[in-house]
Amino acid sequence: MISGAAQGIGLAAAERLSADGARIVALDLPDAPLENVLSAVKRNDSSAIIIEGDVTEADAWTAAIDAAQKRFGGLDILFNNAGISGETNPILSYPEDMFDRVMEVNCRGVFLGMKYSALAMRDRGGSIINMSSVSGIGGGQFTLAYNASKHAVIGMTKVGAAELAEYNIRVNAICPAMTETGMMHDLENGKTADEVAALRARFTSIIPLGRYAEPAETAAVVAFLASDDASFITGAAIPIDGGLKAR
């Protein structure tokens, strides 16, 4: 199961995991381009179920898990990917309603995904991969809600790893840096070409590998953590950052 599956890293994960033999349950908002998942999975001769729903609502998760159990016989992997970035504002003027919304999607959504997926996995084991960020293992400026939520995801990941080990459920988090996705492109909206170039130059200058990540590179780490090759890895928060946090 992949939340926020219709585009970006979620879509790349659907394509990679289906290529590795997984059948996909894709959960995203009703206006998301979920047909992208069907096309990606079909190219890999796999199958997918599309579930429209909001990750902040328990009913969306129970509907998706019920569909996975009825169609595929159970749930083995959750990529808890859905999230929003919120606004970029200093603390002194950060909108309170935006803070609440970011925390609702990025924290409550992850919590509900962990809870209901673990209930479905506890008799069979499984792997839960939570989407954090390099912002979850460091500081920053003007992204208070996003940073707070991504730190919280790592905390939930570690608690989940400790509590769910008895059911042979592994829980890990991934922490990507700047990636060629819609979320990063949103930061460029409304800017001139020169402003976009300056923004990208500023970001890439702090990444030792000197570029943004591609979604497929993050999806490859998701596939690893979902696989038996990662059978003794749980409670980890893995940077996918081109060396950003090595400095």
Describe it for me?
The chain is globular and about 50 Å long. It contains eight helices and seven strands. 46% of the residues lie in helices and 14% in strands. The strands form two sheets. Strands 4-5-6-7 form a four-stranded parallel sheet, with helices on both faces. A three-stranded parallel sheet has the order 1-2-3, sandwiched between helices. The protein folds into two domains: 2-177 and 214-240, 3-Layer(aba) Sandwich (Rossmann fold); 180-212, no CATH class.
How does the SSE layout of this entry go?
Blueprint: E1 2-3, H1 8-19, E2 24-28, H2 35-43, E3 48-52, H3 58-72, E4 77-80, H4 96-121, E5 126-131, H5 144-164, E6 169-176, H6 182-186, H7 193-205, H8 215-226, E7 237-240
Parallel strand pairs: 1-2, 2-3, 4-5, 5-6, 6-7
Keywords, please?
Rossmann fold; 46% helix; 247 residues; 2 domains; alpha/beta; globular
Short synopsis of the structure:
Helix content is 46%, strand content 14%.
Mean pLDDT: 94
Total number of helices: 8
Instruction: Profile the largest sheet.
Output: 4 strands, parallel
**Overall helicity:** 40-55%
Q: Assign the CATH superfamily of the largest domain.
A: NAD(P)-binding Rossmann-like Domain
Strand order of the largest sheet: 4-5-6-7
Radius of gyration equals 17 Å
Structure summary, number of beta strands: 7
- Under CATH, the topology of the largest domain is which? Rossmann fold
| Mass-distribution shape | globular
CATH class of the largest domain: Alpha Beta
